[in-house]
């Protein structure tokens, strides 16, 4: 036997193909094979999770993961440079839809990095810095959108409904998070200090892994953490399942709307506390 063959260690795709000698007849059988491979330590947990995410993304639509219209962070074409810089600093986003008067009239996309080239002495008009926006239907599949993002090198698209109205927006990060899980970088709000963030509409954006104790302290609620340690756990325990995007759950007068979730976990919630619920605690 050739010594080079004896020392050869099969790679991920070789190990996966060895499982598929008998081709699965449907997706359920494929998933059974993948889980069997994980149990036999041919696939690690991360590889299994990413494969499951990729398969799920091929069946999901933009509508299921987009940021809905009321929660879009936007700038107006008539905003001053100082107003725009303040919005960039507050949200830490890199791209913003540019509207003309209201959210139904998106005229383009602004890249925060373009502001670095602005010279105040030359005057400023946001219209000079607006880039074309990409508009997509809300029922486009995520795998198709990801391919289009890669080809066009766009990172954001505006989502329209069947009546050509603005339904929301989606970024390439939103799509990738459905495959590999939540992506955090140095511009995401800090896990320890900013799990709870108040937005301009008076609503709270809350990460699902926020401790119930921290949530109670910040919002004046009184949820018990005897059974669940996190806010996401409260929702899962109440429903007995993973909620869908945009689904709303009301617990003790507090409204939890799912801003981001996939088939396996909740990531982010939008929370509204009624005055009576807060006062009763």
From TrEMBL:
CDD domains registered for this protein in UniProt: CBS_pair_CorC_HlyC_assoc
Keywords associated with the record: CBS domain, Cobalt, Magnesium, Repeat, Transport
SMART domains per record: CorC_HlyC (SM01091)
Gene Ontology MF terms in the entry: flavin adenine dinucleotide binding
Domain CBS: 66-126, 129-186
Chain's role: Plays a role in the transport of magnesium and cobalt ions.
Name used for this protein in its record: Magnesium and cobalt efflux protein CorC
Source organism per UniProt: Candidatus Accumulibacter aalborgensis
């Amino acid at each position: 036997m050739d010594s080079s063959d004896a020392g050869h260690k099969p790679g991920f795709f070789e190990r996966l193909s060895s499982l598929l000698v008998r081709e699965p007849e449907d997706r359920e059988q494929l998933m059974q094979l993948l889980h069997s491979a994980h149990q036999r330590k041919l696939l690690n947990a991360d590889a299994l999770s990413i494969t499951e995410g990729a398969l799920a993304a091929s069946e999901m639509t933009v509508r299921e993961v987009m940021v809905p219209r009321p929660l879009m962070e936007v700038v107006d074409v008539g905003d001053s440079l100082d107003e725009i810089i303040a919005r960039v600093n507050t949200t830490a986003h890199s791209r913003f839809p540019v509207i003309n008067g209201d959210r139904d009239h998106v005229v383009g996309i602004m890249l925060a990095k373009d502001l670095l080239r602005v010279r105040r002495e030359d005057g400023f008009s946001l219209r000079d810095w607006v880039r074309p926006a990409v508009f997509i239907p809300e029922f486009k599949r995520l795998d198709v959108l990801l391919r289009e993002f890669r080809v066009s090198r766009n990172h954001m698209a505006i989502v329209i409904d069947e009546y050509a109205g603005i339904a929301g927006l989606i970024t390439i990060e939103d799509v990738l998070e459905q495959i590999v899980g939540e992506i955090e970088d140095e511009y995401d709000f800090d896990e320890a200090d900013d799990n709870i963030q108040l937005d301009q509409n008076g609503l709270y954006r809350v990460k699902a892994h926020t401790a119930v104790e921290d949530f109670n302290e910040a919002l004046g609620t009184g949820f018990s953490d005897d059974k669940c340690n996190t806010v996401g756990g409260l929702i899962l325990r109440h429903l007995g399942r993973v909620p869908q995007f945009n689904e709303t759950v009301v617990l003790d007068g507090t409204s939890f709307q799912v801003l981001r979730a996939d088939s396996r976990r909740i990531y982010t919630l939008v929370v509204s506390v009624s005055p009576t619920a807060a006062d009763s605690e």
